[in-house]
Amino acid sequence: MAEPPEDPKRSSRRQSQQLIVTVRPRGLPEEAAAAYIGISVGTLQMLVRTGKLPRPRQVSPARVVHEISDLDAYMDSCPRSTLPPGPGRRRTL
Question: How many independent structural domains does the chain possess?
Fold first, then answer.
């Protein structure tokens, strides 16, 4: 025997009671880490080589990630720009 159709009010109530969990990642792979602070992957690698940015963490045998807290600390250490916003921002040497 077929079951009677479910009451729509009861169904929507159950859906609204579902728990939605959002997780902020603690680490980012190299390309995402570079994008997070607005630089190229090559510049990110140079910052790590020169010690201006901590080395990434190896979280599994084949996976390394840059900690977001390290990226935030690096950005906090950067001076504020004195260049005006908009076109022509690049300094000429």
Answer: 1
